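re: that chain from earlier
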Amino acid sequence: MTINFSQELDLVKKSRASSKHDIWMDLDIYNYSLPSVDFDMLVLVGIGGSYMGLKAAYDSFNSSKNVLFIGYSLDAIENKLKSIKGKVLINFISKSGSTLESKVALDRFLSYCKDNKIDYRVINTTSNRKECDIYMPSDLVGRYSTLFVGRVLFEYLGLDFKKMIEGAKAALSDDRTSIYASYRYLSKKSIEIKQVYEERLISLSY
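^ sequence. v structure.
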């Protein structure tokens, strides 16, 4: 079998360059106002693309800041409620604004805060303009939305958000990712297993 690697690599690069999801590179979409991050705890409510990328980032940074992730399991919520203390910033993340699991989790969490007189503030990140505090562009989907919905988290952790965007752009300009994708496709390797040994990078493998 003859493999035209150069041709396939060129197609991968063109496909990546024309992706409509590259809206995340536009710094203008991040020009929304953030509240003061002077809170004792940040609670992120979401599932899927609104949760997994942020959890992976938080774990990999190995931060000592107090952050809770809820929405993916009702049992997990009940186990975490007792750790709530101080002034709490809640970021509800749902593209539609009506994700059932996330809404149930938020309602349970707010009920607990009210019953225990916990001071909190909620920020809604969604594409639903009627309910949003932070409007999420409709073209942002799945893994492409991680940096956008993560800004509240990254600011809370004291990270330089602009440098993170610049770093992500630089990673895309590295041809090694395109070369690897081309090799995988042309070699017809449909299964790939990645093993993570660093505990703080486990969430990255999900």
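The chain has a mean pLDDT of 80.
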